[in-house]
Amino acid sequence: MFTGYQVVLLALQFIGTIVAVWSVVSMTQRSMKAELQSAIDDVKKGHEKSLDEARVQSTRVNDSLHTIGLQINTILEGDVRELQARVQRLESGQDEWTKTLRQRTHDLAEFVNALKLDVELMKKGISR
Known about the structure:
This protein is mostly helical. The chain is 95% helix and 0% strand.
């Protein structure tokens, strides 16, 4: 069998092997833990970057919508002012078409009155 010396050597070798395995496992565990923490940190940074980019994009969209709204309001206000000016011109008779129509109506009224006068004069002339 084994002598006491051999048993001690085997025990020391066994303990040495266990220590070596434990050391490797411990280093591997620390290394894996560090790699895992690094990966977690990278994911966090990526997530934060994505959130920041989403915030920036959201701000840009809101700014664009606000600008579009202002442009639409400006266009609508301009259209309303233009329509109001047209209505005012029509109501006040400053529109060229309205002036022409008034002049033609006046001319025709004068012509009709002249014809009435001529008819009256003719009637007086005939009845005498």
